[in-house]
Amino acid sequence: MSPPTVRKIYALAAALCERSGEEFPATPEVASELIERLRAENGHPAPRLQDVSLRDDGSRRAVRGTRKLARAIAAEVARELA
Length: 82
What we know:
single chain, mainly alpha, 3 helices
């Protein structure tokens, strides 16, 4: 079974926002704030992203890999939304 498409994930997020009485975020910043608030309300054990420091022990390679992955995801999103 293949993973859900970006459109399906957005539809699911919109439906969950509607069900919970939340407004669907209009900007990435608002989305980040909503995600952080909901994670805290749900008692998510992981620290917030801004609370995690970047490691200096070879993480540059990991950052390049992350950027490469982010570009690939962005390209896939663009193809699906076209």
